[in-house]
Design goal:
It comes from Ensete ventricosum. This protein has six helices and no strands. It has 204 residues and is mostly helical.
Amino acid sequence: MAAETLVGYGGEGEGGDGAVGVEAAIQALNTIIQLHFEKILEKKRDVDTQKKELWRLFQLFFLFLAVVLAAQLGASPDRLQCRHCWAPIGLLSLAHLVFYVAVAQTLRCINGFKYQRRCHKLTLALATDRLKLLKLRFFSSSASAAAAAGAEPPPVLPSDFEIHYQEPPESYLGKFKRSWALHFGFLLCTFGFMVSASVVLLCF
């Protein structure tokens, strides 16, 4: 990513070993910081959008449940027998399945966006620390005195400003996997309970 950032400088102040001038390195780090800050905001908006989509799914699903149950319970009592209820039971089971699959996929997207946002936060923090160290190194009182004496500031090596994409440790990823497994298990249990409840309510 840092290499892509440096392309725009056309090699100004760049040495044969890949070293660049202080200003070019600071500009590269500022560009990286700005990029990852925008990515963090973008992922936050994506998470908020998915949460709104999840809430919309809940609203549509419970509206559908209300319509189906109201239609079934409003039927003539002498016709409300168990053999007449298998069609709405099958419809409710299919609706539950579609709903829970959609919820599971939405939760998976939310976890994915949160993980990516965490990666961008770590990369942003690393770039910010590198920028602080670079400024402290080249703009301290001793460096300013050397520059005032006419000394040429040393070039900045690529290792001082190159920022690689950071990922959280395995424990953080394991937390997301455990959360996803818990949500998936909860959805499976809820699906079985709701189907059983539909049979009991409509048949008995």
